[in-house]
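Record type: monomer structure entry
Structure origin: computed from sequence
Chain ID: A
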Amino acid sequence: MTTILLVFSDAVAGREAEYDEWYEHTHLPELLALPGFIAAQRWVRGEPAAQGFPVPAQGNLAIYELEGDGEKALAAMMEAVGAGEVHMSDAIDLTTISMWRFGEHGARQVAP
């Protein structure tokens, strides 16, 4: 079983380059060094895929792949944050962060 953690966020206005640098070269490597984190990738919001659907408030998304139900990874993350081993940047707008955990529900299907 694999779990994904979706983290939506934005940079503080005018500090996008600093946010990107921190996310790519500090934050992702620190989290991927923790037990239970398998992979991570960042995404940026594009144009709506279909008209009439709500647009997410945040423009940035990080998707983390976690082992099992993700409990071990999330516990390791909280411990590392508390111990100062995961460094946050003041270039991230903390008021925009939203985190969601999703577990597998059905088999992965691939186009022929």
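Annotation 1: The domain at 2-47+58-103 is CATH 3.30.70.100 (Alpha-Beta Plaits).
Annotation 2: The mean pLDDT is 94.
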